[in-house]
């Protein structure tokens, strides 16, 4: 029986250590090892029990080495199940001194943590049953006890415990077993390596931040990727995580003019206002040409610069570049001349940075739309023109 008991303790240790590899929640496995003390002082002597319970010198049997090992696994809601093996030598059998008697015990345990979350001081109660041998005479026991884990870190702590063991056979005395040892927790899974266990990680396969329950914030804008409409571009909460470069309240991804402020009703682009239309339709918007020429007059370059800034300011607006001529020469010739005049204006505008050629379309009117009589030199000069209109 003696050798069988030792074998059972060894098996218990091997099984427990192997099971440490099982992982299904935050550190579900707890391994304990340390020193146990057996107190066989008569438990029926109620009158002296309070004074004698802590009388370690006279009543406790302590083996000065690691003399117990236990393993337990959390099953949720504060409960754990486990097993524990211990050995000792009995030289104090109550008030009687005896020759060293071997002591072995294997116990199954059900533990309940009074505080269901880990704190520095972690009290618990424990019940269970087992089998105990003293001097190779064994009997079953029913056990109940209280204990306290003192955690130095999330995984390492000190365990203090006292259990009462009631024997089912008269030849085995009821007794107390006191335990003091180191506890180590194992088994938490962190698949993505972000320091947050999978059980508490809302994104267990993608490294993230504790502030977002383990989910990432790729662009660092303080908005979790799953709630960020633009997870790879830093933005604001008002824009659901998207940037708004021009500050017009339309996210860049939905803004046809991300660098120019405009209302949402125009997809984030500015709307052409009345003052712009006055420029385009008035004298300040006329680009003039010499007789039978498609070369822009030097005096019109200031007008062209003004018009170029307007086109750039409204990048989604479409403009028609109208070419006109006076009534001299044939209508066919004047149509071709007015088209060439319009083309020269388009070429000038598109040579400026920020002007998009797709905004401009050419329309030749020849001599069909005079704005002054073609009977005077001044009138014909006004008719030799190019103007832009909003399509």
Architecture blueprint of SSEs:
Blueprint: H1 2-19, E1 29-39, H2 46-52, H3 56-59, E2 60-62, E3 68-76, E4 79-93, E5 96-113, E6 121-134, E7 137-151, E8 156-167, E9 175-186, H4 274-281, E10 287-288, H5 301-313, E11 319-324, H6 331-350, E12 360-366, H7 377-383, E13 385-390
Word description of this protein:
Helices cover 20% and strands 33% of the residues. It has 391 residues and is α+β, with helices and mostly antiparallel strands. The radius of gyration is 46 Å and the shape is rod-shaped. The chain contains seven helices and 13 strands.
Low-confidence stretches: 1-24
> Would you count the extended β strands for me?
13
Largest sheet: 8 strands, antiparallel, barrel
Q: How many distinct helices?
A: 7
> Whole-number radius of gyration?
46 Å
Give the distance, in angstroms, between the N- and C-terminal Cα atoms: 104 Å
Oligomeric assembly? single chain
Backbone shape? rod-shaped
Entry keywords:
single chain, 391 residues, alpha+beta, eight-stranded antiparallel β-barrel, four-stranded mixed beta sheet, rod-shaped
Question: TL;DR?
Answer:
This protein has 391 residues and is an alpha+beta fold. It is 20% helix and 33% strand. Mean pLDDT is 86; it is low at 1-24.
């Amino acid at each position: 029986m003696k050798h069988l008991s030792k074998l059972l303790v060894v098996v218990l240790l091997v099984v427990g250590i192997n099971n440490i590899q099982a992982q299904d929640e935050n550190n579900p496995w707890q391994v304990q090892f340390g020193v146990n003390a057996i107190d066989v002082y008569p438990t029926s002597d109620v009158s002296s029990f309070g004074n004698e319970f802590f009388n370690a010198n006279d009543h406790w049997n302590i083996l000065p080495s690691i003399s117990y090992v236990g393993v337990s696994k959390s099953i949720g809601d504060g409960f754990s199940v486990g097993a524990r093996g211990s050995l000792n030598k009995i030289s104090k059998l109550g008030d009687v001194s005896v020759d060293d008697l071997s002591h072995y015990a294997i116990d199954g345990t059900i533990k309940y943590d009074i505080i269901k979350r880990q704190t520095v001081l972690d009290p618990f109660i424990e019940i269970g049953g087992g089998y105990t041998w003293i001097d190779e005479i064994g009997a079953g026991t029913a056990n109940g006890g209280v204990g306290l884990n003192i955690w130095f870190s999330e995984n390492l702590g000190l365990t203090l415990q006292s259990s009462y063991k009631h024997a089912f056979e008269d030849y085995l005395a009821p007794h107390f077993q006191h335990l003091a040892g180191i506890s180590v927790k194992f088994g938490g899974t962190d698949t993505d390596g972000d320091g947050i266990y999978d059980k508490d990680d809302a994104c267990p396969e993608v490294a993230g931040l504790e502030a977002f329950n383990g989910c990432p914030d790729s662009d660092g804008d303080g908005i979790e990727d799953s709630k960020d409409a633009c997870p790879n571009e830093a933005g604001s909460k008002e824009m659901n995580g998207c940037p708004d470069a021009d500050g017009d309240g339309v996210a860049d991804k939905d803004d046809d003019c991300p660098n120019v402020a405009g209302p949402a009703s125009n997809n984030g682009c500015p709307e052409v206002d009345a003052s712009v239309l006055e420029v385009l339709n008035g004298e300040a918007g006329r680009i003039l040409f010499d007789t039978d020429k498609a070369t822009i007059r030097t005096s019109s370059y200031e007008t062209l610069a003004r018009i170029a800034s307007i086109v750039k300011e409204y990048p989604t607006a479409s403009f028609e570049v109208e070419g006109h001529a006076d009534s001299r020469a044939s209508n066919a010739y004047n149509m071709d001349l007015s088209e060439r005049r319009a083309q020269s204006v388009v070429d000038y505008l598109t040579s400026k940075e920020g002007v998009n050629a797709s905004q401009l379309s050419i329309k030749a009117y020849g001599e069909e739309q005079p704005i002054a009589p073609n009977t005077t030199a001044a009138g014909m000069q006004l008719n030799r023109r190019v103007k832009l209109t909003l399509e």
